[in-house]
């Protein structure tokens, strides 16, 4: 499974609020599978994309992980790069 992971210098609730806000702003369908685990569904380059987004509290901030839930062979190089930069 493809994923990106980043340590962010913010508390978990701020990270989750930012993720929810970005998903709403972009019109991406999402739901919460468990507390702190968001499942998002969208379409990119004609390919259905399913993401798992988690935020875990750490000693000095929050670890955010964004994973592709299923392979997306049809994604363009541009969208693949965007995926890798999501958690920056």
Task: Describe this protein's structure.
The two termini are 19 Å apart. The protein is built from two helices and five strands. Helices cover 27% and strands 45% of the residues. The chain has 88 residues and is α+β, with helices and mostly antiparallel strands.
**How much is the average pLDDT?**
82
Q: Class by helix and strand content?
A: alpha+beta
Number of strands: 5
Shape: globular
Number of helices: 2
Order of helices and strands: EHEEEEH
Largest sheet: number of strands, sense, barrel closure: 5 strands, antiparallel
Rg, alpha carbons: 13 Å
Proportion of residues in helical segments? 25-40%
Question: What percent of residues are in strands?
Answer: over 45%
Report strand order across the widest sheet: 1-5-4-3-2
The end-to-end span amounts to 19 Å
Low-confidence stretches: none
Please give the oligomerization state of what you see.
single chain
Name some characteristics of this structure.
alpha+beta, five-stranded antiparallel beta sheet, 5 strands
In short:
The chain is α+β, with helices and mostly antiparallel strands and 88 residues long. The chain is built from 2 helices and 5 strands.
Please outline the helices and strands:
Layout lengths: L2 E6 L3 H15 L2 E6 L2 E8 L2 E12 L2 E8 L8 H9 L3
Antiparallel strand pairs: 1-5, 2-3, 3-4, 4-5
């Amino acid at each position: 499974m493809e994923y990106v992971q980043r340590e962010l210098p913010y508390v978990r609730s701020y990270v989750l609020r930012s993720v929810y806000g970005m998903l709403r702003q972009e019109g991406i369908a999402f739901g919460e599978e468990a507390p702190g685990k968001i499942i998002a569904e969208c379409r990119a380059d004609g390919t259905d994309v399913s993401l798992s987004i988690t935020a875990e509290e750490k000693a000095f901030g929050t670890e955010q992980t964004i994973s592709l839930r299923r392979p997306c062979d049809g994604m363009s190089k541009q969208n693949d790069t965007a995926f890798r930069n999501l958690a920056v």
